[in-house]
Specification:
Blueprint: H1 7-13, H2 39-46, H3 61-74, E1 78-82, H4 85-96, E2 102-106, H5 111-120, E3 127-131, H6 137-142, E4 148-154, H7 166-176, E5 180-183, H8 188-191, E6 201-204, E7 219-223, H9 237-240, H10 251-255, H11 259-272, H12 278-288, H13 291-310, E8 315-319, H14 329-335, E9 342-347, H15 350-360, E10 365-366, E11 376-378, H16 390-395, E12 403-406, H17 412-423
Helix pairs in contact: 1-3, 3-12, 4-11, 15-17
């Protein structure tokens, strides 16, 4: 797209430009491999001397269209799509880090991401120090070591729905000379654009709002093009020194601002294999067309439900950044265009009260998912965060009675009526 269109137009039009007589809708290129007329052409692709598709584990036309669309929506220079959100975060970490390296991460992150950083990456020699979102700049900077390769946080945390203080974390990253990576799954670019607030990389579980219909697993890493690895070559030798698997090529010299994206694709994706399927890329790209519309409805429905719960006698507390008395409200107004569709609350009666409420719902369903068109609920302490210790759960904001709500796009009055009758059963 040559012209800089507004977000709603980008969501519909970006990523795929049909030529004369081509299909108007993005085709599903359901092929693992691609034909070339000469051995030299294919050799040049393998040597990264020319661009093109030769094996879907690395790239595919349908997947590439989604990468272009998500990159355009976020305002990045390019993207690498993956098989899941966890894969996208893993690609980010393994592209930036090697054995002996270190990450600083917010403790208020998705349980699966916490486990990846806390338990799995250390097996590869990559350790993480977790910091509180409310920590001062000095405290966050103190967690940085000479081997720290990036800082990681969520723009709107899952499930504690806390808003990231972008400016604070980005200042620390700049001072340390390392990139800031932000998971923007919950707000999506329809509500928040992290690159505009100092992020260098953005990741998504596209399984959530990007797809929005609970039908396609996926993840994506987007590069904002703002971090220059060549400014500190000793800090990032894997980008600034020869890669023997490509005949001594140096990524920063050969690809400039695209160094991260190329390395992520041709080294990490090549060796580990986390590519999104063409079918899932097609579904996600199609569903992104309605992303701005859906996020408006999710947000308005969630605000109505949050206000209802806040005034209900059988509710002890509600956490939603759109409530004016929320400690997150000022940051939400600063960084978000609307407040999203996810909230948490604590019904009276502790864990037993939460279980009674969940079992009494009729319209909303208990599912291990979040961020699609249908209203759904979950008890994180016994599901998504159950691998965490009690202390780790507490540090992540997971209380025994906490219920996570993903508010759908149904009629808001129907949603409220369902929650009202379920609360009456406590």
């Amino acid at each position: 797209m040559n012209k800089k269109y507004r977000l709603e137009t980008v969501a519909v039009q970006a990523g795929y430009e049909p030529g004369n007589g081509d299909p108007r809708v993005l085709p599903i290129v359901q092929s693992t491999t691609f034909k070339y007329d000469s051995a030299g052409e294919l050799a040049d692709l393998f040597d990264l001397k020319s661009a093109g598709h030769f094996y879907t584990r690395l790239s595919n036309p349908t997947v590439e269209a989604l990468e272009k669309k998500m990159s355009a929506l976020e305002g990045g220079i390019g993207a690498v799509a993956a098989s899941s959100g966890q894969s996208a975060t893993t690609i980010l970490a393994l592209t930036l880090c090697e054995e002996g390296d270190h990450i600083v991460a917010s403790s208020a992150i998705y349980g699966g991401t916490f486990n990846l950083f806390r338990h799995t990456l250390p097996k590869l020699g990559i350790k993480t120090t977790f910091v509180d979102l409310d920590a001062s700049e000095e405290e966050i900077f103190a967690a940085v070591t000479p081997r720290t390769k990036f800082i990681f946080a969520e723009s709107l945390s899952n499930p504690s729905v806390r808003v990231l203080d972008f400016e604070k974390f980005s200042r620390v990253a700049r001072k340390a000379g390392i990139p800031l990576a932000v998971d923007n799954t919950f707000p999506t670019p329809a509500l928040c654009r992290p690159f505009e607030f100092g992020a260098d990389f953005v990741v998504h579980s596209t399984t959530k709002y990007a797809d929005g219909h609970a039908c396609a697993l996926g993840g994506i890493v987007i590069d904002g093009g703002s971090f220059d690895f060549s400014k500190n070559p000793e800090k990032f030798p894997s980008f600034t020194s020869p890669d023997e698997s490509y005949h001594g090529m140096v990524y920063t010299e050969a690809f400039g601002k695209m160094a991260f994206l190329v390395k992520a694709r041709v080294q990490v994706m090549r060796d580990i294999g986390m590519m999104m399927s063409p079918m899932n890329a097609f579904l996600t790209s199609m569903n992104l067309e309605t992303l701005p519309l859906r996020m408006e409805r999710h947000s308005s429905n969630a605000l109505a439900l949050a206000k209802f719960l806040e005034s209900h006698p059988k509710v002890d507390w509600v956490k939603y950044p759109g409530l004016s008395d929320s400690p997150e409200f000022s940051k939400a107004v600063k960084y978000l265009k609307a407040f999203g569709g996810v909230m948490t609350f604590g019904p009276k009666g502790g864990r037993q009260g939460a279980e009674k409420f969940l079992n009494s719902l009729k319209l909303a369903k208990i599912v291990t998912h979040v961020a699609d068109t249908r209203t759904c609920v979950l008890h994180p302490a016994s599901t998504t965060h159950r691998q965490l210790s009690d202390d780790e759960q507490k540090k992540s904001g997971i209380l025994p009675e906490l219920v996570r709500i993903s508010v759908g796009i149904e009629n808001s009055e129907d949603i409220i009526e369902d929650f009202s009758q379920a609360l009456d059963e406590i």
